[in-house]
Specification:
401 residues; mainly beta; 5-stranded antiparallel sheet; 2 helices; 3% helix; PQQ-dependent sugar dehydrogenase; Glc/Sorbosone_DH; 6-blade_b-propeller_TolB-like; Quinoprot_gluc/sorb_DH_b-prop
């Protein structure tokens, strides 16, 4: 379902990088003189085809038509990559196939060998104050990680939720490879519940963060508050150029608790959101739009609110992480204990969502694209709300279509 907000004019998508001088020149013509590094948000023009490298494994060739995925897909568990993780939350794939995973309660980042599953502690993040749903949450690699070795992390401190960055020095001993954290953004409301926590760099090389309203529902509609929002920042933590509200990091508002962020091949941003007692949501995010909470949960007759792409009862989903692959959004369910496939045509569902792995691996926290139709999937049975089995928590490799 699409939002009922009135259509608005949007700046055309601006690419951060050009692969060749010829493409750069063509891009300048197509964007009528827009700067190639003005930070314009992706998704502003749904008809645009990206020419750069998007933050998704399913980037389409330039000029290709958007493919509608088949109504029915499939999921195959290829293997268990590793076991014995403690309260895993965030996941960041490395270029060599290894994985970085954060522990919410232990405040550590661990490197998992992508072939053998061997675990090596990278280091502990200082200043984390785990409690309730808070702790060390999402992690993301700098767009220039190959040269700057920066890991970004979203965590709950004693006073707020904040985002820091740290140098990953692989030349140091295990457990001592994280440099001192540099706080790039602070002041996000914290609580025992609804701390948000997902961070990701978008195709525009800007840093996006999903936040929660920390149990104070009034924060979601307050555009001056950072709670119940999707934020868009520069890598240095400043409000990103092109944001919808002047001098503000707020990108969209009216959210309850956002823990999933992903872009499709057309650079459109999607976000998953926990409902309260009735409806969980998958939303297509538009800059400046109001997603309704607490006045609306799920679809609404109020034309001022952007309706979800799809909604689920809370016992079927309770969604955390999402990824885009093979023309669909894949959504990890905690209480629902299943992986949802939502096939898309544009920002609408092209067929009914499908559920996979229902009850097989318990609570599912994070899903990330691995390329070639593969996904990484992280379980969350050691978070105090699951029923752990031998080997929990674990990372799975999936082949999907």
């Amino acid at each position: 379902m699409t939002g009922r907000t009135p259509p608005r004019r949007r700046d055309e998508i601006v690419q951060r990088r050009a692969v060749t001088a010829v493409l750069a020149a063509a891009a300048l013509l197509l964007t009528a003189g827009c700067s190639s590094d003005d930070g314009a948000p992706p998704g502003a023009d749904d008809s645009a085809s990206p020419t750069g490298t998007a933050a998704t494994s399913s980037a389409s060739p330039e000029g290709s038509a958007e493919r509608t995925p088949p109504a029915k897909g499939s999921v195959k568990v290829v293997r268990t990559v590793t076991t014995g993780l403690s309260s895993p939350w965030g996941l960041a794939p490395l270029a060599d196939g290894d994985l970085l995973v954060s522990s919410r309660d232990e405040a550590t980042i661990t490197r998992v060998d992508g072939r053998t599953g061997e675990k090596t502690e990278v280091g502990e993040v200082p200043g984390v104050s785990p409690s309730g749903e808070g702790g060390l949450l999402g992690i993301a690699l700098s767009p220039d990680y190959a040269s700057d070795r920066m890991i970004y992390a979203y965590f709950t401190s004693a006073s707020d939720n904040r985002i820091v960055r740290m140098v990953h020095d692989e030349g140091k001993p295990a457990g001592e490879q994280l440099g001192a954290p540099d706080t790039v953004f602070r002041g996000i409301p914290k609580g025992e519940i609804h701390n948000g926590g997902r961070i990701a760099f978008g195709p525009d090389r800007m840093l996006y963060a999903g936040t929660g309203e920390s149990g104070d529902t009034g924060l979601s509609q307050d555009k001056e508050s950072l709670g119940g929002k999707i934020l868009r920042l520069t890598p240095e933590g400043e409000p990103a150029p092109g944001n919808p509200f002047p001098d503000s990091a707020v990108y969209s508002y009216g959210h309850r608790n956002v823990q999933g962020l992903a872009w499709d091949r057309k650079q459109r941003l999607f976000a998953s959101e926990f409902g309260q007692n009735t409806w969980d949501e998958l939303n297509a995010i538009r800059p400046g739009d109001n997603y309704g909470w607490p006045e609306a949960e799920g679809e609404s007759d109020d034309g001022g609110f952007h309706d979800p792409v799809h909604q689920w009862s809370t016992d079927e989903a309770s969604p955390s992480g999402i990824a885009h692959a093979e023309g669909s959004v894949w959504m990890a369910g905690l209480r629902g204990e299943r992986l949802w496939r939502i096939p898309l045509k544009g920002t609408e569902t092209s067929a009914d969502p499908q559920a996979f792995l229902e009850g097989e691996y318990g609570r599912l926290r994070t899903v990330a694209a691995a390329g070639d139709g593969r996904l990484w999937l992280v379980t969350s049975n050691m978070d105090g709300r699951g029923n752990p089995k031998e080997g929990d928590d674990r990372i799975l490799e999936l082949q999907v279509s």
